[in-house]
Design brief:
The chain is mainly α. The protein contains 3 helices and 2 strands.
Amino acid sequence: MFRDGGDAPRTPAQVAEMQGYGGSDDWIVMPLQCATQWDSLAHIFYEGKMYNGYDATLVTSSGAAKNSIDKTRDKIVGRGVLLDVARHKGCARARSRATRSPWPTLEATAAAARA
């Protein structure tokens, strides 16, 4: 706690200065680089430039005009469930090529994993 009841105005002069008000409050200090996030190529600068030679001034507190991750927002799954369909089907390993599994297969795999 950075301000608590001990910080309340005590003397008549302090009460008058604070107009009788006091309070308590907390702070949470959280360095931004310690949270879950997606870093873009606009995070690092060298000699005033970012990736691909774009000027660092293209990054402001409103966002990045170049090298932003906004183009990928509809193309990346942020959360998902990994299901071992190959194991559920009794295969030693998955096929080498990516294939789509029908919804009933995914439901059955998930149900077997919960059992």
